[in-house]
Amino acid sequence: MNEQTLEQMKQLRLHGMIRAFNTSLSSQSIDYTNDELVAYLMQSEWDDRQNRRIERLTRAARFRYSAVMEAIDYAPERNIDKNQVQRFASCGFIDKKENILITGSTGVGKSYMASAIGHQACSTGRKVMYFNTAKLFTMLKASKADGSYLKQVNKLEKQDLLILDDFGLKPLDNINRHSFMEIIEDRHGKRSTIIASQLPVEAWHEIIGEKTIADAILDRLVHTAHRIDIKGESMRKKLRNNH
Predict the structure, then answer these.
(1) C-alpha angle 239/241/243, rounded to 5°?
(2) Distance (Å, rounded) from C-alpha 147 to C-alpha 131?
(3) Does one domain contain both 186 and 220?
């Protein structure tokens, strides 16, 4: 009887339930009532599906770091408002369609923080994509050549959270400027974006170039943005010195 039940569970792909059912069969000491057993099996299946969904979302996001909120360093010299960052863990900023702009010199942990917030968003079931900005623009240029540009831009628009890392390492050319405008325009008021950059926000205007487009992009980006300016020395250098 149990073999048949397990086989049917397997065909229905109830993986969490299979594990729980096997556990309940092997642990004779736990005596479940019928409704307790059903609740236990359902909860196990629910948890299993949630975990697999989070794994899928995390894989699809392609984060640079396997980062967690708990590991963010709040040392006083880093100038990070712990309450502000911990509020991001609830992902309320995504519900409110707000942006986060993270700035600071090289190695201070901008990418790590952006990735940690992204991982947190995945764990709450949200769709996230992480990009190095220069690589994103290269990919979009290639997609214009092969005709898949609209498909790529639509995919970006659908993400609950888009993370653009290393923004502004070199000025935008005309094609990238218009692509950037399109991405920001599509997401404005509908989705959240995190941008991490070595340059202070005040310098972004020059990097984007072409005054009217730069004004339009920054107006949409900065208007509903939380800002974090990380200070202190490079974390990478610090880690090297400690080893």
Answers:
(1) 70
(2) 21
(3) yes
Q: Say how many domains are in the chain.
A: 2
Domain range spanning residue 150?
Answer: 62-242
What are the tokens at 24? 């309940």
Do 176 and 101 belong together in one domain?
yes
Residue 62's SS3 state is coil
Residues 6 or more apart whose Cβ sits within 8 Å of residue 107: 233, 234, 235, 236, 237
70 and 47 part of one domain: no
Read off the pLDDT of residues 163-219 as tens digits, 9 standing for 90 and up: 999 999 999 999 999 999 999 999 999 999 999 999 999 999 999 998 999 999 999
Quick: pLDDT tens for 32-70. Answer: 888 888 888 888 888 777 778 878 888 888 888 888 889
Whether residue 90 sits in one domain with residue 170:
yes
As a whole number of angstroms, the distance between CA 238 and CA 243 comes to 9
Same domain, 208 and 141: yes
Is 193 within 8 Å of 164 (Cβ atoms)? yes
